[in-house]
Design brief:
Layout: H1 2-12, H2 22-35, H3 47-54, H4 58-70, E1 74-77, E2 81-84, H5 92-110, H6 116-131, H7 135-150, H8 156-179, H9 188-198, H10 202-229
Antiparallel strand pairs: 1-2
Helix pairs in contact: 1-3, 2-4, 3-4, 5-8, 5-10, 6-7, 6-9, 7-8, 9-10
Length: about 230
């Protein structure tokens, strides 16, 4: 157990955190370590080990683990407790099919209301993505880019659902970049999407978004088929 705690300390940092910040700090450190691969799929995360590491009670640890489970970054396994989830789950294809439905609707609501500042913000995320190679940061910027184009959607619950799905995609992006041997994402679709949104070409923007998401869905589908045939 001491060896496991030492390993976690090297990954997450071992300094104690203020009690009022414990849940959010622990969640963010675990989330970052999962997204960038320092905590590999299948690694068990014990509440008491984490509580000891950060010098807190088990309550904020339990809350942090629940949040990460809700984001599909952790899953509860019998006799092991919370473990880091696989990079690609069996429902990944369904997730992308759902994203097509949710995000095209948000885009339809938002594009007519987007301002020059909204478009400039979206382009700024593309510029950052062009030069970013850290997987966790690519995922974060990608999420912010998409949400900047959906931000003016009038259905706020729709936006909350989309943000949940985009949080899941941050993990897929690391899988995608790793399996394809890529250091960063191509921004062709993102540029085309912003150009169409800027010109208020709604149907063109929706078509670009559908193609963008369906390409990712096909990548996952092909990977899962290869795994099942291996």
């Amino acid at each position: 157990m001491a060896e496991k705690t030492k390993l976690l300390s090297s990954i997450l940092g071992g300094e104690q955190v203020p009690p009022h910040l414990a849940r959010s700090v622990i969640e963010e450190r675990l989330r970052s370590a999962i997204l960038d691969g320092r905590l590999a799929p299948g690694v068990a995360l014990r509440q008491q080990e984490l509580a000891t590491l950060f010098g807190v009670s088990r309550m904020p640890v339990r809350e942090a683990l629940r949040q990460l489970e809700a984001q599909s970054l952790l899953e509860v396994v019998a006799h092991k407790g919370a473990v880091v989830a696989p990079l690609i789950g069996e429902d990944a294809v369904d997730t992308y099919a759902l994203r097509v439905i949710l995000e095209t609707e948000a885009l339809r609501q938002s594009v007519p209301l987007l301002t020059h500042d909204d478009i400039a913000l979206a382009r700024s995320y593309i510029a950052q993505l062009e030069n970013e190679t850290r997987h966790a940061e690519i995922g974060r910027l990608n999420r912010l880019f998409h949400m900047s184009l959906y931000a003016k959607a009038t259905n706020r619950k729709l936006l909350r659902l989309i943000e949940i799905e985009l949080n899941e995609e941050e993990r897929f992006l690391r899988f995608h970049l790793s399996t394809m041997g890529l250091g960063k994402l191509t921004q062709d679709d993102h540029n085309a999407l912003v150009d169409a949104a800027s010109d208020k070409l709604l149907e063109q923007a929706v078509a670009v978004l559908e193609r963008h998401l369906n390409n990712a869905k096909h990548t996952i589908s092909n990977y899962l088929k290869q795994q099942s045939n291996a």
